[in-house]
Design brief:
7-stranded mixed beta sheet; single chain; alpha/beta; Aspartate Aminotransferase, domain 2
Length: 258
Amino acid sequence: MKIAQRAQRIEPFYVMEVAKAASALAQQVAHTASPMIFLNIGEPDFTAPPMVQQAASSAIAQGNTQYTQATGLPALRERISHWYATRFGAQVAPSRIIITAGASGALQLACLALIDAGDEILMPDPSYPCNRHFVSAAEGTAVLIPTTADERFQLTNDKVQAAWNPKTRGVLLASPSNPTGTSIAPEELQRIHEFVRSQGGITLIDEIYLGLSYEEHFGHSALAMPGELGQSVISINSFSKYFSMTGWRLGWLVVPEA
């Protein structure tokens, strides 16, 4: 079978194969004095909360398994909107929220909708390897910008401005970040987004680890930026990390109002 050239350009992502090999090795050493500590995959060590499991079982028992609106259950979108307001002080209208098949589905949807062939997306290096593949799938180019520990391994406004060129379509950030675990300072994020908007570009931010913060109670969402800044940023999120629902593959995308 002939495979499309755009698919052939995407490098393999072996994280699940590595996790499988690590699990097999863990079984071999399970009875030794040195059990393995897993640092290989971003997954909680516990499952979804009991109330979530019970709600899912109840929905199935009641036959709530039919088609929904293309953008997701209105009640779910309203609860996500409420979560942003109460936890992060961000006013996100339910109409801006699109339920997706995981965060990966959200990022794929965003890239295919916003990136044309030849467009460049600026990303920090290091960053989550899979994210750049979604840019490639949309026939764009991920431009990796080296970052340092002093910068918290996040892009700065100065570096974004220095790398910006006529082909640049926007930036793709992650906060908190995988693999570094750092969050971008709210002030720096605001400066970056202000510049990107001035150039007619887009700011995409992966917030799937939002809420997991050792420095603040819940951390800071890009959607809480003041005024039009918070209304124009595009955020990717998921129930996988903070809510311990990785296998559910349930995510969402927050977009500007049409």
